[in-house]
Automatic annotation (TrEMBL):
Record protein name field: Bifunctional protein: zinc-containing alcohol dehydrogenase quinone oxidoreductase (NADPH:quinone reductase)
CDD domains for the chain: MDR_like_2 (cd05289)
PANTHER family the UniProt entry points to: ZINC-TYPE ALCOHOL DEHYDROGENASE-LIKE PROTEIN C16A3.02C
Stored SMART domains: PKS_ER
Organism: Paramagnetospirillum magnetotacticum MS-1
Length: 316
């Protein structure tokens, strides 16, 4: 099979297109014929070695965690899926080595689910990591519910683009940040209010909309943005970060909760997201498509941090 291989960590120049054997699924596993692989910032962060302590790597390494494709083979004991079925998966494994920038990938069946019937493979590959992150952060950890108010950073981004409509579906009032050119896009996703992070003080703007503070602040952006987000949360509310670790001492001093979330594979959650997508609650983000051979270019584009929607590698 064709795959993007890396023999060491470093810049994007360590990536090469290679031909390697097709893997075989073990008990409880699924072999997916990958038709499209979603590109995420974590991919280039791993490649550059920035997450080496969190995710030790083995070599040769195939990047990528998002996949949409068809079931090519089933390991012993797998009864939840069928050969040829169209599926999607967030293919993060305990060992970071065999990813989705390849024609085939093996994944535990408990992380693989039927993809929405109304999506193409390229469209479906944009969902798993980002949509699962939004679902688990908003609905599992923060337990967002009707009548609450939430601040979502980077509403036009990969995770924000799913968080906004999920929060709206849950019945929350949604305040999102985005650059001016993306305001209409984010409102169309369901945001009630959009703050221009480039020109406005989002803490003051949020407090103007929610004087006592929001019930949840969703930190999809780290650094100073995350640090200032504590001040937007009401006492008893929660700050959820998917970028930097949270400061529990600071949160306790403000009377709020905080939680760092790293998404987990979950077929059950994917099935819920599939149903919501087929119902029209979630929509396909804008997509930049590239062939597998241009994986390095795709990661370089992701690294700019200014992609609206998602980048997809068309595998075949």
């Amino acid at each position: 099979m064709k795959a993007i291989l890396c023999d060491q960590l470093g810049g994007l120049d360590v990536m090469r297109l290679a031909e390697i054997p097709i893997p075989s699924p073990g008990p409880g596993e699924v072999l997916i014929r990958v038709h499209a692989a979603g590109v995420n910032p974590v991919d280039w962060k791993i490649m550059e070695g920035g997450l080496a302590r969190l995710f030790p790597c083995k070599f040769p390494l195939i990047p990528g965690w998002d996949a949409a494709g068809t079931v090519a083979a089933l390991g012993d004991g797998v009864t939840s899926l069928s050969l040829g079925e169209r599926v999607w998966s967030f293919c993060r494994k305990p060992d970071i080595q065999w990813g989705t920038y390849a024609e085939y990938v093996v994944m535990s069946a408990d992380g693989v689910a039927p993809m929405p019937a109304n999506l193409t493979f390229a469209q479906a590959s944009t969902f798993p990591l980002a949509a699962l992150t939004a679902w688990q952060s908003l609905l599992e950890v923060a337990q967002l519910r009707a009548g609450q108010r939430v601040l979502i950073h980077a509403g036009a981004g990969g995770v924000g683009g799913f968080a906004v409509p999920l929060a709206k579906w849950a019945g929350a009032t949604v305040i999102a940040t985005a650059k001016a050119g993306n305001h209409d896009y984010v409102r169309d996703l369901g945001a009630d209010h959009v703050i221009d992070y480039a020109t406005d003080d989002f803490t003051a703007a949020t407090r103007a909309l929610a004087p006592e503070g929001v019930d949840m602040a969703f930190g999809t952006v780290g650094g100073e943005v995350l640090a200032r987000s504590y001040e937007t949360v009401r006492p008893g509310g929660i700050l959820v970060s998917i970028t930097d670790k949270t400061d529990k001492d600071r949160a306790e001093g403000l009377g709020i909760r905080c939680k760092y979330v790293f998404v987990k594979p979950d077929a059950g959650h994917l099935r819920r997201l599939s149903a919501l997508t087929e119902q029209g609650v979630l929509r396909v983000p804008e997509i930049v498509e590239m062939p597998l051979a241009r994986a390095a270019e795709a990661l370089a584009l992701s690294r700019t941090g200014h992609v609206r929607g998602k980048i997809v590698l068309n595998v075949g």
